[in-house]
Amino acid sequence: MADRRDHRIIDGKAVQHRLLAEIRAELDAAAKTHPVGRLVSISIGPSPEIEVYVRNQARAAAEAGLPFEQVVWPAEATQEDCKRKIAALNDDPSVLGIILQRPVPAHIHVRSLQSAIHPLKDVEGMNPASIGNIVYNDIALAPCTAAAAVEMVRATGLSMPGLEVVMIGHSEIVGKPVAFMLMAEGATVTVCHHMTRSVAMHSRRADVVIVAVGKAHLIGPEMIKPGAAVIDIGINQVTDAAGKVRILGDVDTEAVREVAGWITPVPGGVGPVTVAMLMRNALTAHRRQVAAGWLEAIEA
Amino acid sequence: MADRRDHRIIDGKAVQHRLLAEIRAELDAAAKTHPVGRLVSISIGPSPEIEVYVRNQARAAAEAGLPFEQVVWPAEATQEDCKRKIAALNDDPSVLGIILQRPVPAHIHVRSLQSAIHPLKDVEGMNPASIGNIVYNDIALAPCTAAAAVEMVRATGLSMPGLEVVMIGHSEIVGKPVAFMLMAEGATVTVCHHMTRSVAMHSRRADVVIVAVGKAHLIGPEMIKPGAAVIDIGINQVTDAAGKVRILGDVDTEAVREVAGWITPVPGGVGPVTVAMLMRNALTAHRRQVAAGWLEAIEA
């Protein structure tokens, strides 16, 4: 495990706590004029692998001062059932935001359900409309993981304008939004992927390398420019020779930190910040709902 | 003027005619089962600078076998008038597509009017919803200029997967859509802009350089790798010392073609292909309207 006192390691927990304290202060102020509703986490069917996520979200919500309700719908719920229930949550002014936990049962079409969440309640930033808006630099409710990666770049203190960033991975919910969000801040972004001829040619010249591929230890020290920042979004479950299950990032953290100027560990890097971004989206959702006239002002 | 018989020059007119012939054949086939409506070009107020554009569009429409109607609304039309009229065109099944010519009078909000055009009739691909869909690789109705740039890359015959592309300029309607469309085909794309530390560092390593900045002769031969393809989207009106007005691209074509493997001239490069893309979008719009059940089948 990386030593958290190593100044090269960006401690995601510390960033999370700082962000949650800021969000709490802003929510407390906002709550004086307009009621702050609750976050509703939806799981469909029993699914032990998401419990740890939900628990982390509930804990972060408490730290941010946000009411958090966990609902579990039956595994046999139909797509139509789920849509109808989401529509009811959209209409309920006491619901600030909706989180749809994944995985869902095989008969549920997850993208379609995500589209059913109203964009102003889409605190995960997963609605295709929200993601499309990123093209227009409207990053109000960005996908949380992408927003967390950007926050990690910010945590380095590097100046964004002109920053040379190489994004490895071009998924709709991470790679592409990250590229857009950093472009909007003035960075020069190259997006690499499985068809890129030489990822190393790009990563070795970058000030910041962000990796979201899903291959354990894909990125070694020979791919990083000395002093660069390395943001690792990968979460890979690997069983070692002794049969022990470990969580590894896409970056060989131990080796790369000897070269990098900054590096995010896995676990304990981008993950905790992603949860904080969910709460920041909730704060933004509240502001947007106030601006849209959805919430009645509290009388003085 | 560049010699069009120079094999390095990609002749936009020739590409246009080839594309329009292909589109005409497909439209002729489509018209056997479902009626093909007309394109409606809307100008608001008199505006001599757009006449040449409209004329070129009308000519290309004729070549593709598409009915083309030009309407001019009064300069004093309000935003609400225009929206109402666009809604009527959206509802009219004999209207295949709507083109909103620019510039519009100062009191008209152009982006809002573009949003009023139904996405299935948005043959210019300017509706924010259409552009947002590009994130999801749904490039059905892409902005015409961006689509034309991609078509020009295709005209080189270079294989897209792994192609190293540098896009200079990151506007919503050209740079960003081009980046996404080429990423979707497997290219590795870097987007440079006014805050990029060294554009030359990127452009000199690229297999393809695409420029959409709006600065005459910004790109010289020292910025291009020998044998690379150079796609010039710039259209700059420049008055020379003798008082003569000339149209120049963002690329110093005469100098760069001594280095480049392929180059698109200005005028006569991307421009004519952009008009062909408008007709290709019309063909796509027809297919989508048929799929959506908007058009009644012709009885045999």
UniProtKB/TrEMBL annotation, chains A, B:
Recorded superkingdom: Bacteria
Keyword Mitochondrion among record annotations: no
GO biological process, one term: L-histidine biosynthetic process
UniProt keyword annotation of NADP present: yes
Occurrences of domain Tetrahydrofolate dehydrogenase/cyclohydrolase NAD(P)-binding (ranges): 143-289
Pathway(s) the chain acts in: One-carbon metabolism; tetrahydrofolate interconversion
The EC number(s) this enzyme carries: 1.5.1.5, 3.5.4.9
Residues where NADP(+) binds: 169-171, 235
Keywords: Amino-acid biosynthesis, Histidine biosynthesis, Hydrolase, Methionine biosynthesis, Multifunctional enzyme, NADP, One-carbon metabolism, Oxidoreductase, Purine biosynthesis
Residue ranges of every copy of the Tetrahydrofolate dehydrogenase/cyclohydrolase catalytic domain listed in the record: 10-124
Molecular function via GO: methenyltetrahydrofolate cyclohydrolase activity; methylenetetrahydrofolate dehydrogenase (NADP+) activity
Database matches in CDD domains: NAD_bind_m-THF_DH_Cyclohyd
Oligomeric and partner information: Homodimer.
HAMAP family in the record: THF_DHG_CYH
Protein task: Catalyzes the oxidation of 5,10-methylenetetrahydrofolate to 5,10-methenyltetrahydrofolate and then the hydrolysis of 5,10-methenyltetrahydrofolate to 10-formyltetrahydrofolate.
The protein, known as: Bifunctional protein FolD
Organism this protein belongs to: Rhodobacter viridis
